[in-house]
Design brief:
CATH architecture of the domain at 265-401 in chain A: Alpha-Beta Complex
Strand content of chain B: 5-15%
Number of helices of chain A: 17
Strand order of the largest sheet of chain B: 2-1-5-3-4
Mean pLDDT of chain A: 96
CATH topology of the domain at 265-401 in chain A: Flavocytochrome C3, Chain A, domain 1
CATH architecture of the largest domain in chain B: Orthogonal Bundle
Distance between the termini of chain B: 75 Å
Strand content of chain A: 5-15%
Largest interface: A-B, 79 and 80 residues
Strand order of the largest sheet of chain A: 5-2-1-9-17
Radius of gyration of chain A: 24 Å
CATH superfamily of the domain at 265-401 in chain A: Succinate dehydrogenase/fumarate reductase flavoprotein, catalytic domain
Oligomer: heterodimer
Radius of gyration of chain B: 21 Å
Helix content of chain A: 25-40%
Structural class of chain A: alpha+beta
Low-confidence stretches of chain A: none
Largest sheet of chain B: 5 strands, mixed
CATH class of the domain at 265-401 in chain A: Alpha Beta
Structural class of chain B: alpha+beta
Shape of chain A: globular
CATH topology of the largest domain in chain B: Fumarate Reductase Iron-sulfur Protein, Chain B, domain 2
Order of helices and strands of chain B: EEHEEEEEHHHHHHH
Number of domains of chain B: 2
Largest sheet of chain A: 5 strands, parallel
CATH class of the largest domain in chain B: Mainly Alpha
């Protein structure tokens, strides 16, 4: 396997323009002759499907939810970045590019990030034109706020529901194409395998989640926009249905997996309340604009927060990072919270929490202003915890939120399997080892609205694909493999539920491959995960049949894939003998406890190639060249 | 706490179902309603029974997947709350809880508490959008929108498409859902060119799907987890009448040419 990044030559600022000119075009009359499958209907998949439909391609779009509007992009709260510089506060495309590369701890590809920053401005225009109700000033112009890790106000938002509004804009564009007949929507349909013929991605095998029918969809190109794998931890802020199956199955068919160990732990989530916990709820980090994070200075101080006087509180982010304070990036804020809790200064029933206090902001601007900014978040917090954050400081704790790793893609967003393109959180490309706040929405929409519509045309114009039908031996073999695996899951009829395996895997991953990782812990996982996987296939209990709506069966297939994927994640974390961004190896830290990178040995993307069941995957390295940004130690002090 | 549940069980593909009684002991008040069902399902599977099928995904009250009638009330007793955000502290030890799917002709039951809400997507496909293809947008600040209009558009756009308004309505009308989308887009300058045809097309699709009409019960507003105001239905009617007249005039003008 050879990793060709296909980054165009020439100055950074001109690469994308030049590439757009050099790419081949598909004649408008020929576009309808090409078929494209889009798996996933979130910001990346939905925008890609809608845009390719508008261009005239013959598109099928798939989602496992009952409507494309429910994809998990909908839950993003805070906002979307764009280098508009509407606030005249010193922002520029270059600054957004620089911030993103630095925020990613210098582990992202420069050219991709620069393109993302360039496109960011078009995204806002497109969304406004679609009717996305962004927040506005009294003069009628768009409002901005500053957001986690940025010193300029470049974040556009729609109350605390930015992801919802962007997704609805995209969903409406998609439904418009459904009505126009260019896109066929397949809801409640889950991709279970990728069809690769002569080394080229030519289709997918799906399960109709209502009838149980295993179906084949063939096409000229396949796009995966299936999100991240945060649910490998069982507890995360991801929706319950988020899974690694599509990307993992593609990996097993030959797509390299890039940087699987890069996961983002979000600092502001509601702490776990008990063993019944099924998911964790994020509180947008926009709250850190006005909330101050603190814990008691004394260990084991269990007085209620209002009884702890000001001089006995440790506003530890403001103390340690005076120039960024409460707005320091996510990985740093998360680790700092873990540190104070490990010291025994955590708050709440189990000591795993820190305060996020709005007292001084309410004093400064009044309760009404705070309600206008964060009303729905405060309401959500009160629903879950039964505490009123206007009166009592919120309790927060870090939780798994986003995965920067994903299938390796080149500059054209194509994986190592020709014809298989990967967009949004599902690819590895733009965020390096840590993603900045409000950049996920930006990347998803950039990939779907403005990158793939060009690059897929270039691929299709040159692909010269032979005709293919369902009788092809590769197609039949893939369908047979899916059918057999489904039957196997149903046949075990053991004693343990799917959830109990998922919880056990999640705990292993959180304890040993979470916020801080050690070689010993990772080795323990690498020994324990195959054992758990073996037990799963001998002792899982999946009730019901495959010929109907069967939610246990759906979960079982996803957990089976997580049980394979988790091992790769730990392997990647073990091999990367440095700390960078969200990947913190305890062995590699500076004397004051900050992440210590090893640029001499690890300035590369780790792309893993599957070798078959039970065989060690092969590591390929894509060196990262920094020609425009000087590698430096990230400091937010 | 210990609860008694009566849950609607309807096998896949079957036209009918029934309420089945289950004991739900040792339920923590900190559990969400769906976590209570998770625990019940784990116990059912351990006993060799079929778990209860229900739709859910984000569990943060925003994706709109979940939704069930809880003691006859869409999304249960807490106002402005989707089922996933309802917590068991809203119930008392010893309570009996009846759990049923959304009931509407346009929402056929697939299995147990899972219904087919595809009709709502088709209402949006009929016209619930602004026709702007990617790439053709002017600068985001080219068209100022008064803050009050943008805020009102956001109020309407907050709809999560869960279908509670339909389930709560005695006529199983989707008028609150439809009016929220019509209202969101009519408040913005970008939505004006298609304002008339949008309301006519969406209303026609709503009728074609088998939803009932609005007779002003107001149950939809009470049930809505996002507290979308029934005033949007007034706004829809206003536009509907306007569009009907305008279209008649347009058709007459076309005929005259």
């Amino acid at each position: 396997m050879e990793l060709k990044s296909k980054v165009p030559s020439g100055p950074l600022q001109e690469k994308w323009d030049r590439h757009r000119f050099e790419m081949k075009l598909v004649n408008p009359a020929n576009k309808r002759k090409f078929s494209v499958l889009v798996v996933g209907s979130g910001l990346a998949g939905g925008s890609a499907a809608a845009t390719l439909g508008e261009l005239g391609y013959n598109v099928k779009c798939f989602c496992f939810q009952d409507s494309p509007r429910r994809a998990h992009s909908i839950a993003a709260q805070g906002g979307i970045n764009a280098a508009k510089n509407y606030q005249n506060d010193g922002d520029s495309i270059w600054r957004l590019f620089y911030d993103t590369v630095k925020g990613g701890d210098f582990r992202a590809r420069e050219a991709n990030v620069y393109r993302l920053a360039q496109i960011s401005v078009n995204i806002i225009d497109q969304c406004v034109a679609q009717g996305v109700p962004f927040a506005r000033e009294y003069g009628g112009l768009l409002a901005n706020r500053s957001f986690g890790g940025a010193q300029v106000s470049r974040t556009f938002y729609a109350r605390g529901q930015t992801g919802q509004q962007l997704l609805l804009g995209c969903y409406q564009a998609l439904e418009r194409q459904v009505a126009a007949g260019t896109v066929r929507m397949h809801t409640r349909t889950e991709m279970l395998d990728l069809i690769v013929v002569d080394g080229v991605a030519r289709g997918i095998v799906t399960r109709d989640m209502v009838t149980g029918a295993i179906e084949t969809h063939l096409a000229d190109a396949v796009i995966l926009a299936t999100g991240g794998y945060g649910n490998v931890f069982y507890l995360s802020t991801n929706a319950k249905g988020c899974n690694v199956t599509a990307t993992w199955r593609a990996h097993r068919r030959g797509a390299a997996f890039g940087n699987p160990c890069y996961t983002q732990i979000h600092p502001t989530c509601i702490p776990v309340s008990g063993d019944h916990q099924s998911k964790l709820t994020l509180m947008s980090e926009s709250l850190r604009n006005d909330g101050r994070v603190w814990v008691p200075k004394k260990q084991g101080d269990n007085r209620p927060p209002h009884a702890i006087p000001e001089d006995e509180r440790d506003y530890y982010l403001e103390r340690k990072y005076p120039s960024f304070g409460n707005l320091c990036p996510r990985d740093i804020a998360s680790r700092a919270a873990k540190e104070v809790c490990d010291e025994g200064r955590g708050v709440g029933p189990n000591g795993l929490g820190v305060y996020l206090d709005f007292g001084s902001a309410i004093q400064r601007v009044g309760e009404a202003k705070i309600a206008e900014r964060y009303g729905n978040l405060f309401q959500m917090y009160e629903r879950i915890t039964d505490e009123n954050p206007y009166k009592v400081p919120m309790r927060i704790y870090p939780a798994v939120h986003y995965t920067m790793g994903g299938l390796w893609v080149d500059y054209n967003l194509m994986s190592t399997i020709p014809g298989l393109h990967v967009l949004g959180e599902a690819n590895f490309s733009d965020h390096g080892a840590n993603r900045l706040g409000a950049s996920a929405l930006m990347q998803g929409l950039a990939d779907g609205y403005f990158v793939i519509p060009y690059t897929i045309g270039d691929y299709l114009a040159q692909a010269a694909l032979p005709k293919l039908d369902e009788s092809h031996p590769e197609v039949r073999a893939t369908v047979a493999a899916v059918t057999e695996r489904t039957a196997q899951l149903l046949a075990v009829k053991g004693k343990r539920t799917v959830d109990s395996f998922h919880r056990e895997l999640g705990k292993l991953m959180w304890d040993n491959c979470g916020m801080a990782r050690t070689a010993a812990g990772l080795r323990h996982n690498l020994q324990r995960i195959p054992e758990l996987r073996a037990e799963f296939w001998q002792n899982v209990n999946v009730p019901g049949s495959g010929a109907e709506l069967n939610q246990s069966l759906e979960k079982a297939g996803r957990v089976a894939d997580f049980l394979e994927f988790a091992e790769l994640m730990c392997l990647d974390a073990l091999h990367r003998e440095e700390s960078c961004g969200g990947h913190f190896r305890t062995e590699h830290q500076t004397p004051d406890g900050e992440a210590q990178r090893d640029d001499a040995n690890f300035t590369y993307v780790a792309a893993w190639e599957y070798q078959g069941p039970g065989k060690a995957p092969v590591l390929h390295k894509e060196p990262l060249a920094f020609e425009n940004v000087k590698l430096s130690t990230r400091s937010y002090k | 706490m210990n609860l008694t549940l009566y849950v609607w069980r309807q096998p896949a593909g079957s036209p009918s179902g029934q309420l089945v009684k289950y004991d739900a002991p040792d339920i923590s008040p900190d559990m969400s309603f769906l976590e209570m069902l998770d625990v019940t399902n784990e116990r059912l599977i351990a006993r060799g029974e079929q778990p209860i099928a229900f739709d859910h995904d984000c569990r943060e009250g925003i994706c709109g997947s979940c939704g069930m009638m809880i003691n006859g009330v869409a999304h249960g007793p807490m106002k402005g709350t989707a089922t996933c955000q309802l917590h068991m502290r809203s119930f008392k030890d010893g309570d009996t809880i009846y759990i049923e799917p959304w009931r509407a002709r346009a929402f056929p039951v697939i299995k147990d508490l899972v219904v087919d809400r595809g009709a709502l997507d088709r209402i949006v496909a009929a016209g619930g959008y602004i026709s702007v293809s990617t790439g053709s947008a002017p600068d985001g600040n080219a068209i100022p929108v008064p803050k009050t209009d943008a805020d009102a558009a956001m109020d309407a756009a907050a709809c999560i498409g869960c279908g509670a308004c339909v389930a709560a309505c005695p006529n199983a009308s989707a008028m609150l859902f439809t009016s929220a989308k019509v209202g969101h887009l009519k408040m913005l300058p970008q939505g004006q060119p298609e304002r008339g045809r949008r309301v006519l097309a969406m209303e026609a699709q709503m009728e074609a799907e088998g939803f009932g009409g609005c007779t002003w019960h107001g149950e939809c507003e009470e049930a809505c987890p996002k507290e979308i105001s029934i005033d949007w239905i007034v706004e829809l009617y206003r536009d509907y009448i306007w569009a009907t007249v305008v279209r008649r005039e347009e058709r007459a003008a076309e005929a005259a040419i």
